[in-house]
Each structure stands twice: as structure tokens, then as C-alpha cells.
Write a structure and sequence with these properties.
2 copies of one chain form a homodimer.
Chain A lengths: L7 H8 L3 H8 L7 H13 L6 H8 L4 E6 L5 H16 L3 E6 L4 H13 L4 E4 L9 H8 L3 E5 L9 E5 L1 H14 L5 E5 L5 H16 L9 E3 L3 H12 L7 E4 L2 H13 L9 E6 L3 H4 L5 E4 L2 H17 L8 E4 L2 E3 L9
The structure holds a DNA duplex (30 and 30 nucleotides).
Chain lengths: 339, 339
DNA sequence: AATGCTTTTGCAAACGTTTGCACTGGAAAA
DNA sequence: TTTTCCAGTGCAAACGTTTGCAAAAGCATT
């Protein structure tokens, strides 16, 4: 039990050969004779030798760790992304080190510091809501660590980026509402400084314009949680000219709307249509089931990880890629079928 | 940009002192004079020196990495656990390396191999559904890596363990159903070889016995997904003596039941009561909102991480702890209020 | 001026690998 | 026989730290 760790030197001593030969034999270096390779491998197996990755990393000045910064872990979209990342990374021989920024700039700063100290091979990052300074990400690059942003990207830093097609997703959602007869479409958004808010808002606005529906600014609200939606929606419904439908920035908000609308005695989708944005099981638990824009977080994660690993391996060199992951409108029960 | 990494030796050269002095100064070793410490720290800051953790780890023969094996990532309970782990770890200066076993023994084997090679300080593991051999976990211990099991524990290996109180959770859920007048309570369970199934089943059975309700085996089913529940439930409802309520092994299954019951034209909870097991947002999206047993995954994660870190730090020594995290029944709309 | 004590610093080894280069011994070539 | 060549192996340095021990420096006490 307290047996100290077996090293390459132990094997060398046991076999009366030099550590360098052992090292080469284990790595199938062509210089080493077949016989020696066999003997060494047998011995390594017998002593249940495990290569010390820490020593290896130091020697080689690199490691196989990918740092992942995620604003939240308990979150369908982000956990899907992490799953995509983990899958790709492990298939390519990389390990994933996971950090949660908790939507805090301070925490993000500490995390990037840790990542640099750990000399990770690469970083996959999504900005916290708070973050509006980017020096810490520049530092990552300065320390020769590869960097790819996903979802909440950073425009100021030149890197690869993977984003969801928020604009097209919102556009298709709102056009769907319009095609089913909706005309006064309320929009519940996140704070506007976030890229995703801007993009989805633009999709919303363009869908209206394309269909010659006047934009009514009084139908646009900042409201991005279930709780807030449950509070806000009754007021919105009792407006002099209430909306006939809602487009929500995420599914949680949409469930809050759904709850409030039903509570107000209105029928969904006959009286009021609702469309969310996110994907996941939540939409299926609703009654009626929620029409929503599926974001394919898993694809985002896989794509970002692949991009990063290619950079690390030096396959891609100078160029920087912007990858856009398509969304998909999932039409369900909270919207009407087109006439 | 391509400036090679700054080391302690660069600082030493710059200041015409020895690397050992620099090292000690940066670590506030008491032997070093205040003045030297200041000079060194200033210089380190100026050159934006970042300690190379790989070198440190090799030298000290340890690192600050906690390996986490989780069967699934996109999963409310498990992601809550991961969040609890990450939070505790980062507060204590540890980093989290995340692996997904995908419920596969083969994958679990590869993961433990990676973890040993990486010489992580400790491992937090939950068994995959497939796993029924445990040598790989014994190997972890043999390599002097601390190990704590959570949720899906391994009885054969002597370690600390953190589990959810499945028995008490199920007991309280079923007693609640009984107290609201239910007598024929159907139970939708996972495959019985899993500990959690056994424990919850025992809770279910004991609740019936305690209240002198005869156990009807024909009301117990293996059914643990939303899809299966949507398929099975109509048949169950059309039994000659149908149940008046359902207790489901998880919330996904419960939402499937809810859907089928409503579709059959029955009212919830007036005609049929439903209770799930899991916690999370899903329960709130249902209409009526789902009564369920909250598992406190976050607490599980925090507790397991704390236990592991104490072991790593050598605070706890020989003893092995079994920690049980209490569940909490969240009574909502799918069950009646007690008369 | 010598001694002793304390404070501060430096030397060198060590952690476990990999790898450029030099060396060995034997076979092939001269 | 000598030379050349090559496959196979070993030496030693290097990666960036920490740390036991020795040495130096400073200072007060004899």
C-alpha cells in the first residue's frame, strides 16, 4: 500500500539497462530492438508501472489539459456544451478542467490566473454577464495558451469563436408566430449589453419589419427569469392593447409566462401564443408543450473543442474561424398551427 | 508575444541573487529579509512572472487536482453535484477535472487509468450503471490517491461515501400520498439492481406496511423515462383496479405520467395524485406543479468534496465516513392537501 | 581582536521524464 | 587485417521548482 511509486528507473535497475532505453522502449522508439522492447514492456506491466504525467509535462513543456470556463453548471444549455466538450476532448486524449465563473468578473479573473499557472494547453471560455474588461484573456494568449470563445464571445480579442445563430433563431421564431396570425408580439429579453440579447432582438425586429408589422417598443421588456415573468406578465396582459403572443429569451421565462397566462384565464395557444428559446426537457413538461428554439449546445461544445484542439495540435495555424451553429425551431403546443 | 516563459531563474539573474532566495521570497519564507522580499516581488510583478505549477507539482510529488467521475453531465441531479464540488474545490484551492463515464464500464476503466497517470490528489466517483467490477477503484487507492464515492457507491471498496437518503425520501413521499387519502399507489422504478431502486422500493413498501395497506405487486413497474411512462400509463389506468396515485423514481417519469393521466381525461390531483423524485425546474414547469422529493445534489457534491479534501490534507486519517444527505418532500399541485 | 550567535543567502540535489550525442560491438566492405 | 557503417544502447543535461545544509554576513559580547 505505502509502496512508493514505480518509476522508469526502477524498471531500468530491475533489468540492468539504462533509463533512456526503458523510456524509448515504452514509446516504441525504432532504435530499440524488438527483444528489449518486449522485455521492458513485460517488466513495466509486472510492476504495474504508470508513467508520471507531471514529469512528462514538465519535460515537454506542455500538457493535455483543456480549461473550460462556464458561467453556470446547472443549466441545460451550458451543461450540453460541457458534454460536447468532454466528449471531443476525451476522444482526442485531452482532459477537461472545469471552472464556474458564477457570472462574476472577479471569479473569472481568478480562474484565468489558475489556468495560466497550470499551463493548460488551451481554454474554452464563455464570458460572465458582468465582464466588460478583457485583459485577462489577452494574458492567456500572451502566455501562449490557445483560446476559443463560445456563445458569449469577446469581440475585442482575436480568437476562434463558436456562437449560436441567435439572430436566425429569433427571426424564425417570430416569423412562425406571425405566420400563425399573431400581430402584437411581446419580447422578453435579457439585459441588452449581452450579444445574445442584441442578436435575438434584431431577429425579432427584422421579422416584424419583413412582415410590415409596426414595432411597438412598449411590448419589449427586460425580463429573463421565471419569477420575473410570473410577476410582469399579468401587468402586460392588462395593458390597454395587450399582446397576442410572447417571445421569451429563454424557456424558464417562457414557463413563467405560460403560468401567468393560464392563471389569467386565457387559453394557450388559442388566445395567447408563447415561444421560448433554449431547448431541453423543460419545454416538454409544460402543458401545452412549449414551442421553442433549440440551440444545440452539444454541437457548440463539440465544435469549440475541435477548433481548440486543432489549434493546440498546430493543424490550423494563423487563421481564425468564426463558426455559427444553426438553431432549430421546435413547434409544439404553445403556438397555433399555420392556417 | 513569443517571449518564452519567465522563470524564477530569470528573476534571480535580473536581481543578481540566487534562485533559492527568489523562491523563498515569493513564498514569504521567514528567513528572507523584508527588503529582499519586496525587491523580488516587485521584480516578479514587473516581469509578470507566473509560477509553473507543473514544475511545482513534480517537485512536491503532488498536485491540486480533483478528478470527478460522473455518469452523465446533462442531468439536473448530477450537474448540481458537480456544482457543489466545483464550489468547494475552488474555495479550497483545488481544481476539478471532469470525466463522464457515459454509464459505461469500459469508459470508467479508461478514466481511472487517466486519473492515475495524472497523479491527481483525489477522486470523486459515482458508479456507472454497468459497473460490477471494482479493481480499477482499488488501483486508485493502491496508487495513494484518495477516493470518495457519492450517490452510486461501491460497497466492496473501503472509502468515504456520500449518499442521498433514498429510503427516507421514498417513505415520506408515499406516506404523504397515503395521508391525502391515496390507497392504491403505483410505483414506477428503475431496474432493481441499482441501490437507489432498492432503497426507494423499501421506502415505498414500508410506508404501505406502516399504514396497513396491502402491497399489490401488480402496481409495481420498471419504468424510468418519460417516454416509457407515456406508453405504460394508459395501460395501467385501464386496469380492472387502477391506481389512485403514482410514485415515480424520477421527475422525468412523473411528467410522462402526468401527461398520460391528463390525456386520459382524469384530473390531477382530484382523480389521480402523482409524486416524483429528483428536484429541479422540471417540477415547476408542470401544470399542476409536481410534488417531488428534492435530493439536494448540491449538498451531496459539497459534502463529498469536503470529505475528500480533508482526506487529502491529512486532516482526517484512518476513519471512514458514511454521510447521508437528507431529502425533502416538496408538496405542490399534483397531490392533494391532507384533509 | 577574537568569539559566538543570529540572520540572511547560496549551492546543489532532487522530483521523473525525454533526447541529443557519444559510445559500443559486430557485420560488411575494402 | 583494417576500415566503415549501423543498429542498439548509455550518459548527462534539461524542464522549473523546493529545500537541507553549509556558508557568509552582520552584530554584539567577551
Amino acid at each position: 500500500m505505502a509502496k512508493t511509486q514505480i518509476t522508469i528507473i526502477d524498471i531500468a535497475r530491475e533489468l540492468n539497462i539504462s533509463p533512456s532505453t526503458v523510456s524509448r522502449a515504452l514509446r516504441n522508439h525504432p532504435d530499440i530492438s524488438r527483444k528489449t522492447v518486449e522485455i521492458v514492456k513485460e517488466c513495466a506491466e509486472r510492476l504495474s508501472y504508470k508513467p508520471n504525467e507531471m514529469a512528462l509535462n514538465l519535460r515537454l513543456g506542455r500538457n493535455n489539459i483543456i480549461g473550460v470556463i462556464v458561467p453556470e453548471i446547472v443549466h441545460y444549455f451550458f451543461s450540453s456544451i460541457v458534454q460536447g466538450i468532454e466528449e471531443t476532448a476525451s476522444a482526442e486524449g485531452f482532459n477537461v478542467m472545469l471552472f464556474r465563473s458564477e457570472e462574476s468578473y472577479e471569479k473569472e479573473l481568478k480562474i484565468t490566473e489558475s489556468l495560466i499557472n497550470a499551463r493548460v494547453a488551451g481554454v474554452l471560455a464563455s464570458l460572465s454577464k458582468e465582464t466588460d474588461r478583457y485583459e485577462h484573456y489577452q494574458q492567456i494568449l500572451d502566455n501562449d495558451i490557445k483560446l476559443v470563445f463560445y456563445d458569449r464571445i469577446c469581440i475585442g480579442i482575436i480568437t476562434d469563436r463558436v456562437v449560436v445563430d441567435d439572430y436566425a433563431g429569433a427571426l424564425s421564431a417570430v416569423e412562425h408566430l406571425i405566420s400563425t396570425g399573431c400581430r402584437r408580439i411581446a419580447f422578453y429579453s435579457s439585459p441588452l449589453h449581452l450579444e445574445i440579447s442584441k442578436n435575438r432582438r434584431n431577429g425579432y425586429l427584422d421579422a416584424l419589419r419583413k412582415n410590415s408589422i409596426p414595432v411597438d417598443e412598449s411590448l419589449i421588456f427586460v425580463c429573463d427569469t421565471r419569477e420575473k415573468a410570473m410577476e410582469l406578465t399579468p401587468q402586460v396582459l392588462s395593458l390597454p392593447e395587450p399582446p397576442d403572443s410572447f417571445f421569451a429569451i429563454n424557456d424558464h421565462t417562457a414557463t413563467g409566462i405560460l403560468y401567468a397566462v393560464k392563471k389569467a384565464g386565457l387559453r394557450v395557444p388559442e388566445d395567447i401564443s408563447i415561444c421560448g428559446f433554449s431547448g431541453g426537457d423543460l419545454a416538454l413538461a409544460c402543458d401545452p408543450m412549449l414551442t421553442t428554439v433549440e440551440q444545440h449546445g452539444y454541437e457548440v461544445g463539440k465544435t469549440a473543442a475541435k477548433l481548440l484542439i486543432d489549434k493546440i495540435k498546430g493543424i490550423t495555424h494563423g487563421q481564425y474561424t468564426n463558426r455559427i451553429i444553426k438553431t432549430k425551431l421546435m413547434v409544439r403546443g404553445t403556438t397555433k398551427t399555420a392556417p
